[in-house]
Write a structure and sequence with these properties.
Elements: H1 22-37, E1 49-51, E2 59-61, H2 62-78, E3 83-86, H3 87-92, E4 106-113, H4 115-119, E5 126-133, E6 136-144, E7 149-154, E8 159-163, E9 166-169, E10 183-184, H5 187-199, H6 214-223, E11 228-234, H7 236-248, E12 252-255, E13 269-276, H8 279-289
Parallel strand pairs: 3-4, 10-11
Antiparallel strand pairs: 1-2, 4-5, 5-6, 6-7, 7-8, 8-9, 11-13, 12-13
Amino acid sequence: MTLPWGTTAIATCTPPDGIPDVRAVGAILREVAAQVILPRFRNLAASDVAHKKRNPRDLVTIADIEAERALEQRLEALSPGCAFVGEEAAEARPDVMAALAEDRPVWLLDPVDGTANFAGGDACFAVILGYCVRGETQAGFILDPLSDTLVWAVSGHGAWGESGGERSRVRVVHGRPLSAMRGSLTRRAAERLALALAAAGESVPPGAGRYGSAGREYMDLARGVLDFASYTRLKPWDHAAGVLIHREAGGFSALRRDGSPYRPAPCIVEETLLLAPDEGSWRRLHALLG
């Protein structure tokens, strides 16, 4: 399978428009996961896990902190002059998010997405990278380290999956009736949807529940394992890469308040984002969710 921008780039994997080398980014993700994250999976001491000071309900582990530092170091060498907005850096200094309003490119880092799962020994976690320029996500990468599955996209060039040395396009599934769709919603939203469908005399879609890792949900949204999802309190490191990958896989997403597309902002966006396979199903879900 050749790269989406043509056969001449296959040897060097040099993408268009100054976007960093996609193959090199994938190698960095795998290297950091293998060296920093996976050795600590199901091997954390009590002192390796803490509650965040700003958000005491959220956990942070030594793997989060050291993986973010390692990603920054390797990505700086790959793309000098870029800014970095990492989840753990933003926890300590929220002002680092201001870089998303600047002209220089920004890497968004979520070193261990699904930290509670990771700390509890649950295999559902991911590493997320987004590459943004002037408020637009130009490239996104999500790695499942345990299965060594990478899903990535470059704006305008489709979404791609890599596993076992093979690369292939990934696409959402179109044409499923709502009653056959699987989604990720909060319990309250799932109850609203079920009540609205029951009132209309329609079947309720099978529930999927939250994974505890937005990155892993975005991987499944792009591959058609999940059909729809809704998120609130939008942190850029959680959503920038996934929204781009979902869009490049043929999906449709928008903010529920006004139907505008999601863009990473220099703050946590207090909005609700809804993703669906296409605009028609998005509008139907938006109406049913109330």
